[in-house]
Specification:
The chain is α/β, with parallel strands linked by helices. Among the domains are: 1-105, Double Stranded RNA Binding Domain (2-Layer Sandwich), CATH 3.30.160; 111-162. It is 42% helix and 20% strand. It is built from 15 helices and 18 strands. The chain has helices spanning 12-22, 80-103, 117-126, 131-142, 146-162, 200-223, 243-256, 278-286, 301-306, 313-325, 344-357, 374-377, 387-403, 434-440, 474-503; strands at residues 2-7, 28-30, 41-50, 53-62, 65-73, 173-179, 181-182, 194-195, 228-235, 265-269, 291-293, 331-337, 361-366, 407-412, 423-427, 445-450, 454-457, 466-469. The strands form four sheets. The chain has a nine-stranded mixed β-sheet, with helices on both faces.
């Protein structure tokens, strides 16, 4: 149990986020007076507002030891919201320092708990700061360590080379097309993904609704003379549907979307090897798909079985080679650090197998216990590596990619991610995914079509995002797609017309 006494604030959410960096599912009790009948940790956190700024003080007692820390954070802006933000950051900073002293664990990301640290660096750079000033701000105010700053800067530099007009790209938009079917659902997954075998009656209706949404959005794009930067078919696993159904979707897209000759990238997430056939590869080649994913997640058959993926390592290799031989050569592969019963030796084995294939890009995920996943619901069934070994696995992946010519080009983090680490996309030179960059950095509107797709709407020049979610389950989507499309296009018109007025 962790008893916490607060003075001058009620920042329980921020305190919980910092504690979760060090402890899994901590039992936190906020008290007015210490409960002497309970053992465990005691933390006192206070904040006072003075002419110097927000002055935070913290004391921590645990394991027969006591630590204290004082920190003053100057105000940036005098309005109440800015003052409150400064106080929250001062308390978070103080608590992080106390816990680092107690545990000996250094948090590379400091007090940053958001999922897009690269977006923050982009924002600082566009505000007029030099790289040195931005790094100093992140280091001093957020306690981001130098090795994480170096990683962020490498990624930002690469993104600006891949998308030279990155800071003007909000004049265009990208499109995500969600197909919510998979052969089976993986134990760690919380995406809208349904085992296609149990959804036979929904597939036809869903595809009819998706074609309607594609046609309607295409008309809106033409009316507003909008240019598409990239298109991404995700899900689920888009290649779960038949070759004929996939061909029909591409035909509808080409008939409906304007100026497809200007699209910089078309990706299909063919992540499950057991969905890939020569006929589907022929369809993707016919419609000039630029990039696909074939995701092993692990090169250990026992692991694949444990997480509910009904394909073998051998099938992953065979389908990869089939795609390469048939001419789909820009292939991404995903690996996940921290899958059940896997340790450092398993990661070494997976990377050795990747080395035999050398895909164009490799995305290294760290397992996250997402609240709605089978793995989170039944944690006792799934034994995962400890923090130290997870860190070693990530360091191994980082060294391996460096030695084999892969460069990091995008990064994001998740809640409940093992070891408070990150997910990193690596690629060989020239094979970075434009869609991944724009989506993760929230640099432009992403129009989400299909079941479970979330649109992120941003009028050019506004920098302000509005989320717009489609229904997650096929039946609701099938029953409501005409109304949801009408509502979405109404909101798009309102947003973009307002943006046009502000820019005049």
């Amino acid at each position: 149990m962790i008893q916490i006494k607060c003075a001058g604030h009620t920042f329980e959410r921020e305190i919980g986020l910092i504690l979760a960096l060090f402890y899994e599912d901590p039992e936190i009790v906020y008290v007015g007076d210490w409960d002497d009948s309970q053992s465990g940790m005691r933390i006192f956190l206070s904040v006072n507002h003075t002419g110097r700024g927000a002055e935070a003080h913290g004391r921590l007692q645990a394991e027969g030891r006591e630590f204290s820390f004082d920190y003053t954070r100057p105000y940036v802006g005098g309005d109440p919201k800015a003052v409150q933000k400064t106080a929250k950051q001062a308390v978070s900073y103080t608590l992080l320092c106390l816990l680092e002293q107690l545990t000996g664990i250094e948090q590379g990301w400091g007090i940053l708990t958001g999922i897009r640290p690269t977006k923050l660096l982009h924002k600082l750079l566009t505000s007029g700061m030099s790289s040195e000033e931005a790094h100093r701000h992140l280091r001093e105010d957020y306690m981001v360590r130098p090795y994480k700053l170096e990683l962020l800067q490498r990624i930002v530099d690469r993104q600006l080379r891949v998308v030279p007009d990155f800071y003007q790209i909000d004049r265009e938009l990208s499109i995500y097309i969600g197909i919510p079917f998979c052969p089976t659902k993986c134990a760690y997954c919380t995406f809208p993904a349904y085992a296609i075998g149990g959804q036979k009656n929904s597939v036809g209706g869903f595809l009819e609704g998706l074609r309607y949404e594609i046609r309607s959005v295409g008309e809106w794009l033409r009316r507003h003379d909008m240019r598409i930067t990239s298109i991404y078919f995700g899900g689920g696993t888009p290649t779960s549907i038949t070759a004929e159904e996939l061909d029909s979707l591409f035909a509808e897209m080409h008939a409906s979307f304007p100026n497809l000759e200007h699209v910089r990238e078309l990706t299909v997430e063919a992540g499950r090897p057991d969905t890939i056939t020569p006929e589907k590869i022929d369809v993707m080649k016919k419609w000039k798909v630029d990039r696909i994913s074939i995701n092993p997640q692990s090169f250990t058959d026992e692991t694949l079985h444990a997480i509910g993926r009904h394909h073998s390592v051998q099938e992953t290799v065979e389908k990869y080679r089939l795609a390469m031989e048939m001419g789909l050569t820009n292939i991404n592969m995903d690996l996940i650090i921290g899958l059940p019963n896997e340790g450092l030796s398993d990661m070494e084995h997976s990377l050795a197998e990747v080395q035999k294939l050398m895909p164009s890009s490799l995305t290294v995920h760290t397992l996250s216990f997402k609240r709605a996943s089978e793995m989170t619901q039944n944690k006792e069934k799934y034994k995962v590596a400890g923090r130290a070994e997870i860190q070693q696995m990530m360091e191994l992946a980082s060294r391996w990619t460096e030695e084999h010519g892969y460069v990091p080009y995008y990064l994001y983090r998740q809640k409940n991610i093992l070891g408070n680490l990150e997910n990193i996309g690596y690629s060989l030179e020239g094979y970075e995914s434009i869609y991944n960059i724009l989506m993760m950095e929230e640099a432009q509107t992403i129009l989400g079509l299909g079941c479970g797709a979330v649109s992120k709407l941003m009028a050019p020049g506004s920098g302000k995002l509005t989320r717009w979610a489609n229904p997650k389950d096929p039946k609701t989507y099938n029953d409501t797609y005409k109304q949801l499309v009408a509502d979405k296009l109404r909101d798009l018109d309102e947003l973009y017309n307002k943006g046009a007025e502000l820019s005049r």
